[in-house]
Specification:
The protein is mainly α and 100 residues long. Helix content is 97%, strand content 0%. The model has no long low-confidence stretch (mean pLDDT 90).
Length: 100
């Protein structure tokens, strides 16, 4: 009788009980320590992502405003260049008229 009990404790039944205890310990560790850590990590990542998206939106607004200002400045410069071209053409015509 004692040998049968000893064989059950050492044998497959003992292994099943040992695995059940180990599984319960792992489950308890996962639920009490790992899960809160993971949820806090995901929350921090979500906060960082939201902050990045806000900064990106601000950058895009600044970029759009800068491009609009550059476009206005470009139009003014282009207009000035057209005026200079017209003046040069007039000067060329005057110069050609004096040479004859």
């Amino acid at each position: 009788m004692e040998t049968e009990l000893l064989h059950m404790i050492i044998g497959p039944a003992g292994a099943v009980c040992t695995m059940a205890i180990v599984l319960a310990a792992v489950w308890r560790f996962a639920v009490t320590r790992l899960w809160p850590f993971l949820t806090a990590y995901v929350d921090r990542q979500q906060t960082n992502l939201e902050r990045l998206m806000t900064a990106h939106d601000d950058d895009r607004t600044l970029f759009r405003d800068s491009m609009e200002k550059l476009w206005v400045a470009h139009k003014e410069i282009h207009s000035d260049v057209d005026d200079i071209k017209t003046d040069i053409k007039e000067l060329k015509t005057l110069y050609r008229g004096q040479r004859r």
